[in-house]
Design brief:
- Chain B: One of its GO terms (biological process) is proteasome-mediated ubiquitin-dependent protein catabolic process.
- The complex is a heterodimer of chains A (381) and B (885).
- By secondary structure, chain A is an alpha+beta fold.
- Chain A is 62% helix and 6% strand.
- Chain A has a 5-stranded mixed beta sheet, with helices on one face.
- In chain A, helix 4 (146-159) packs across helix 5, helix 9 (217-231) crosses helix 12 (261-271) and helix 18 (351-360) crosses helix 19.
- A 4-stranded mixed beta sheet of chain B has the order 8-5-11-10. Chain B has a 3-stranded antiparallel beta sheet with strand order 7-6-9, with no helix packed on it.
- Classes of the chains: A alpha+beta (381), B mainly alpha (885).
Chain lengths: 381, 885
């Protein structure tokens, strides 16, 4: 029958064989067809259906048929040695089956390789451990989530009762959850800079949810914590703001740039509606706090006016009483203007209304008269 | 008196028939106009006369009938009226045809019956063809285009039937000849090609193409080849190649020769063309493809010219061109990893943790720095100029890495000086003298990276790295072997085969050295089917013990074997048969790897189904072969757009119903399918997977986000990765992956691509695909390889890195700036006329960047490009017909 033989190059050729031929005969056939240089029969390895064929077996025994194909490749000297070893064993053990002898060749190389593998493994293991330790040492030993509670417990045990849970938690926060650094803080005291950083995680959480409004967001975010701690102490009073460093910074900012108060109050309304309500209930006191001089600043009157107008927009009532009391203002008028005011008075209007209208209309007598007549009904109230 | 009674009887019956006819006509007359009625009556008269005993009358009637039919069918109006009116008489005429004696008149009637059978014959009877063969063999086109198309369809069916019966086909082929001539003359090239394919005689095409229609014909042939099974596809491409050569369209012929991977055809292109300038363009195309090609006296007679052309093939000027593009776009300024991370855009959480130094993060920064500044020659970490002490300042960053991290840090210098061999070797040289073996290993690898895609007569990589292959230290051996694999990929270098197979046969070599040696041999001899190397790798696999086969790096041995058969389809059968003799642990993995490599880039849907079948099996013994099967689906399907879309949907299903080891491979397969080509739906899928509860799936998805956005500077992917870096700031492994992905997105500051396809997505560079596949196979075991000691496998990506540019040069090969239109490519295969090939274009001046799916065409007639596809380096010639306006 015709048999197709394929090579690892991807090419194939046909040989004519008989089903009763032995594998060795087939190898000789291939050598004849392809030449001794390419495939010497002593080094050939024939493979069919996932099995390496033995020289002494026949094609029928290996179930080789015309529609299948053989693969031919060359063997190495080691494999030749294995083949020799395998040929010896069947001679000494006649009852050995084909499958048993088939498993014999792989047993030799693994034994040799096993030794090399063992040494390789033993060499690799320490290297891996070293590298793992190195990475562990290099990286921050940060604690998070479920490990945090366990770490706190361990540190408390380490202290033997000297440190309470709150102290340990505060130290961990100051050390950004690094337990080694936290223990160092517990022994030597928490540094001032680290102490200030304690609110940072909470602040970060808040800011991630809100839209920052430039420099205003920082002082505002300080209010919640202070408010919580102060509300219990002094109910209904704004005195706690007086000593608040953030409020002092806010005050100096507002006095130097009054326009900033409005967005500050808007932001405050978002962050802490309770505090804003408190300010509205005690608007007078709030204004007084805002206007207290930090270093004897000038322009306080201008600031007061702007602050008043801004507070008014938040329905802080009774605002108009303040400017009259705090800002007496003399108005100079010329004799001609004096006569004009007199004539408007003669028309039957109140002097105060006349003066107000006269000044509002830019000291124009006709416009003032027109204004007074049009709005005569308003002044009766 | 005997005849008298007969005549009287006939007259009586005729009178009765006439009375009935008159009655019918009165009824029908109400629906027809006068003209139609007259035509109908005329045709009925013709039918009667055809049956008249007088041959003279028959002839006149047939001629008139033919004239009427031809006049109507040759126009483009609605249903031809003569055919409509003759439909009731088809049976009558057929019956009469059987009674006629053999004569010319009988043939004329057969012609008419053939046309009538266009609509009247029963399904599958092929009566139109039957009567055509019995007819007068006149001009076939005069009956109209529709008739010709119908005949072609019937011929195909008849051909199949006759082939099964082994009947003669001479008369069919004669008719085919006429039909093809008609089609080719009337701009119906696709129909002609289809018919010839059906009758398996495409050779006939050569005699019918001319200057006006060969372009469309070849375009159709080339596109059809993608959907044909082998070896038919090679036959079709061969014919397209012959036609292009016949009309001296050598660049197109060269592209087909490269597609067929036929070096003999490449030689013929050179020997057929006499123009040295065009040969220069050929050399640029060969250089872009990445194959090794040696010019000889026969191809280029002049010695000086040959030297110049060989230099182009060797890619010596690639760095120069790349930097020209960079200067033109003004991105020469070095970027630091912080410029890529953009940590200042993040909210507070991640910023707090960023202050802590970390070897893992420094390693990631090393890779990001290498990827972003690839090929620019300068950066802010590795190449800072020395101010106080040379070694102290320049080595500052190197020693912020630890142990094997230094290997990647030293090798990153090779990436930064990519393609610039002279400067690269000078700067890497100082690390050869280090006391640290990891630094030396990195320097060796860096030398290989610098020489990637560049060939040099002095062979510096071999000279420098050759001696280190046999050193005792494992790190140094791996660095040298991997460097040689990258430097000589695709070269089929004989010396290296001897050296590296010696390593494979060395029983004392450790597994990792063997693995990298196999990969390097696979890269150097990619797609060569080299028998000796295959045998060496096979015996190495056979000699491994069961425990060794469980090591992570063992997977590279079957991959090295598979790369030898990349794209070679059936040639892998013998090797696949041998793999069945392997240990059970590695057998299936090797089989899947061989299958996917052999059919990579073929679009073979049968193999995709085969691989999907393996993915649907349930595993119970911790087998690992389904990973390469999933990657194999992507490797096979990436060949063309339709298969790519279908594969994306198949992978979505695997994602929903697949087991965990399949889900880990799916993101990598998606990354390969859309490499450097971010698609919105794939982006969304990978973004979803990057938050998967399984960290291995998440890591694979993150790396794949980097791959699909590689070199695109895609703002959306960059934003996703920034969010991921904030999300994973506590997980060092995932943060490492995010950093790598960020580096890939800004690869070469957006000037490079990792897409192995080029030349309008027609040609597949085997070395580029081999580099991608190697890196992806390493990612199948992310924790042990990429996140373990062997992170430098990421440098295999350098094989796929190419500038995504169009740089036009003049006849002296100097850069020349011309206006070009760059727009979205439009598929014009099989369309009539000269349709636009791009849409939504903008006008730029060269050098210009080309995104995925973009196509460029000249916006001026002042120059003539020597290449039909404007990509990479294109030589422009002055147009002699041009007049200044």
């Amino acid at each position: 029958m015709k048999l197709t033989v394929k090579t690892l190059k991807g090419s194939h050729f046909e040989i004519r064989v008989q089903p009763s031929d032995t594998v060795m005969a087939v190898k000789k056939n291939i050598e004849d067809v392809q030449g001794k240089d390419n495939y010497p029969c002593g080094q050939q390895l024939l493979i069919h259906n996932g099995k390496v064929l033995k020289d002494e077996t026949t094609l029928v025994e290996n179930k080789v048929s015309e529609d299948g194909f053989l693969v031919v490749m060359l063997s190495k000297s080691k494999t030749s040695g294995s083949a020799a070893a395998s040929s010896v064993q069947p001679a000494s053990n006649p009852p050995t089956t084909v499958s048993t002898s088939n498993s014999t060749p792989p047993s030799d190389p693994p034994v040799q390789t096993q030794a090399a593998n063992n040494s390789t493994s033993s060499t690799d293991a320490p290297t891996t451990n070293v590298s793992a330790d190195t990475y562990g040492l290099a990286a921050s030993n940060l604690v998070a989530g479920s490990n945090l509670e366990q770490t706190i417990q361990q540190i408390m045990d380490m202290g033997g009762g000297n440190w309470d849970r709150d102290t340990v938690s505060r130290a961990l926060r100051a050390a950004y959850n690094n337990p080694e650094r936290a223990i160092d803080y517990l022994y030597s005291g928490i540094p001032e800079a680290a102490e200030v950083a304690v609110p940072v995680p909470q602040t970060a959480g808040i800011s991630s949810g809100a839209v920052p409004v430039g420099p205003n967001s920082s002082p505002l975010n300080m209010f919640p914590q202070e408010t919580i701690s102060s509300t219990g102490a002094g109910l209904g009073s704004l005195d706690f703001l007086r000593n608040n460093p953030q409020f002092q910074a806010l005050r100096s900012m507002v006095q130097s740039n009054p326009q900033i108060l409005q967005p500050v109050l808007q932001e405050l309304g978002k962050q802490n509606p309770g505090l804003l309500r408190l300010i509205q209930e005690h608007h007078g006191e709030f204004l007084q706090l805002i206007n207290e001089p930090v270093d004897g600043s000038e322009g306080m009157k201008g600031t007061f006016l702007l602050v008043s107008s801004i507070c008014y927009s938040y329905n802080i009532i009774d605002i108009f009483e303040q400017p009259e009391q705090d800002m007496p203002h003399a108005i100079n008028v010329t004799p001609a203007e004096q006569e004009a005011i007199g004539r408007l008075e003669a028309m039957g209007f109140d002097r105060a209304s006349v003066i107000e209208a006269f000044l509002a209309c830019d000291r124009d007598e006709q416009l003032a008269a027109n204004y007074l007549l049009e709005n005569a009904g308003d002044f009766e109230d | 008196m005997a005849p008298d009674p007969n005549r009287a009887g006939t007259s009586a019956s005729a009178n009765a028939a006439k009375d009935d006819a008159v009655t019918k006509k009165k009824v029908e007359n109400e629906d027809l106009s006068d003209e139609d009625l007259a035509l109908k009556q005329q045709l009925e008269l013709y039918v009667e006369r055809v049956q008249d005993p007088d041959q003279g009358l028959q002839k006149v009637a047939l001629e008139s009938m033919r004239q009427e039919i031809r006049t109507s069918t040759s126009s483009m109006t609605s249903v031809p009226k003569p055919l409509k009116f003759l439909r009731p008489h088809y049976g009558t005429l057929k019956t009469y045809y059987e009674t006629m004696v053999e004569s010319d008149l009988k043939k004329y009637l057969a012609d008419i019956l053939s046309v009538l059978a266009l609509t009247m014959s029963a399904e599958g009877e092929r009566e139109s063809l039957k009567y055509r063969l019995l007819g007068s063999e006149g001009d076939i086109g005069s009956w109209g285009h529709e008739y010709v198309r119908n005949l072609a369809g019937e011929i195909a069916q008849e051909y199949t039937k006759r082939q099964s019966e082994e009947a003669p086909i001479d008369d069919l082929m004669e008719l085919v000849q006429q039909i093809v001539a008609f089609h080719m003359k009337h701009n119906a090239e696709p129909e002609a090609v289809d018919l010839l394919m059906e009758v398996e005689d495409l050779d006939m095409l050569s005699g019918h193409v001319d200057k006006t229609n060969f372009k469309r014909t070849c375009l159709y042939l080339t596109s059809s080849a993608r959907y044909l099974p082998g070896p038919d596809d090679m036959l079709v491409l061969d014919i397209a190649y012959s036609i292009y050569k016949q009309f001296e369209e050598y660049p197109n012929a060269l592209q087909i020769a490269l597609f067929m991977d036929n070096s003999q055809h490449v030689r013929e292109v050179f020997t057929s063309c006499n123009d040295v300038l065009r040969k220069k363009q050929f050399c640029y195309m060969l250089a872009r493809h990445g194959i090794t090609f040696e010019l000889d006296e026969e191809m280029v007679p002049d010695d000086e010219d040959r030297e110049l052309l060989q230099e182009i093939i060797n890619n010596s000027k690639l760095s120069e061109g790349y930097l020209t593009l960079a200067r033109d776009i003004e991105v020469m300024e070095p970027k630091s990893p912080e410029d890529i991370y953009k940590a200042h855009l993040l909210d507070g959480r991640a910023s707090a943790g960023a202050s802590v130094d970390s070897a893992r993060q420094n390693l990631a920064a090393t890779f990001v720095n290498a990827f972003v500044n690839a090929g620019f020659g300068q950066d802010k970490l590795m190449t800072v100029p020395s101010d106080s002490s040379s070694s102290a300042s320049s080595g500052n960053w190197l020693f912020k890495n630890k142990e094997h991290g230094k290997t990647s840090a030293a090798a990153s210098l090779g990436m930064i000086l990519l393609w610039d061999v002279d400067s690269g070797l000078a700067q890497i040289d100082k690390y050869f003298h280090s006391n640290d073996n990891h630094v030396i290993a990195g320097a060796l690898l860096g030398v290989g990276i610098v020489n990637c895609s560049i060939k040099n007569d002095c062979d510096p990589a071999m000279a420098l790295l050759g001696d280190y292959i046999d050193k005792e230290d494992t790190s140094i051996r791996i660095g040298a072997i991997m460097g040689l694999g990258i430097a000589y990929a695709g070269s089929q270098n004989e010396q290296l085969r001897e050296k590296l197979t010696g390593v494979l046969n060395d029983s004392k070599a450790s597994l990792e050295v063997l693995a990298f040696a196999a990969i390097s041999l696979g890269l150097i001899y990619v797609g060569s089917c080299n028998e000796e190397i295959a045998q060496a790798i096979i015996y190495t696999l056979m000699d491994r013990s069961e425990s060794e086969l469980g090591e992570p790096l063992t997977r590279l041995l079957p991959l090295g074997l598979g790369l030898l058969y990349l794209g070679k389809q059936d040639s892998v059968e013998a090797t696949a048969e041998v793999s069945k003799t392997f240990n059970e642990k590695i057998r299936k993995y090797c089989d899947m790897t061989l299958l996917s490599c052999a059919y990579a880039g073929t679009g073979n849907v049968l193999k995709v189904q085969n691989l999907l079948g393996h993915c649907s099996q349930h595993l119970d013994k911790g087998e690992t072969h389904q990973g390469p099967a999933v990657l194999g689906i992507a490797m096979v399907a990436m060949a063309e757009e339709l298969g790519l879309e279908m594969a994306i949907r198949s992978l979505e299903h695997l994602l929903q119903y697949g087991e965990q080891n399949i889900r880990r491979a799916v993101p990598l397969a998606l990354g390969l399918l859309c490499i450097s080509n971010p698609k919105v739906n794939v982006m969304d899928t990978l973004s979803r997977l990057s938050h998967d509860t399984d960290s291995e799936v998440a890591m694979a998805a993150v790396i794949s986000l980097g791959l699909i956005g590689a070199g695109t500077n895609n703002a959306r992917i960059a934003g996703m990765l920034r969010n991921l870096s904030s999300y994973y700031y506590k997980d060092t492994s995932l943060l490492f992956c995010v950093r790598i992905a960020q580096g890939l997105v800004h690869l070469g500051k957006g000037l490079l691509t990792l897409n192995p396809y080029h030349s309008d997505r027609f040609l597949l560079s085997p070395t580029a695909l081999a580099g991608l596949i190697t890196m992806l196979h390493a990612c199948l075991d992310m924790k042990a390889i990429v996140l373990g000691k062997y992170h430098y496998v990421l440098y295999f990506l350098v094989l796929a890195m190419q500038p995504r540019m169009l740089l036009t040069v003049d006849e002296n090969l100097k850069p020349l700036s011309v206006p070009v239109r760059v727009g979205q490519a439009v598929d014009v295969v099989g369309q009539a006329g000269r349709p636009k090939t791009i849409t939504g274009f903008q006008t730029h001046s060269t050098p210009v960047l080309l995104a995925a799916g973009d196509r460029a065409e000249l916006a001026t007639e002042k120059y003539i490009p020597l290449s039909p596809i404007l990509e990479g380096f294109v030589i422009l010639k002055e147009n002699p017909d041009y007049r200044e306006e």
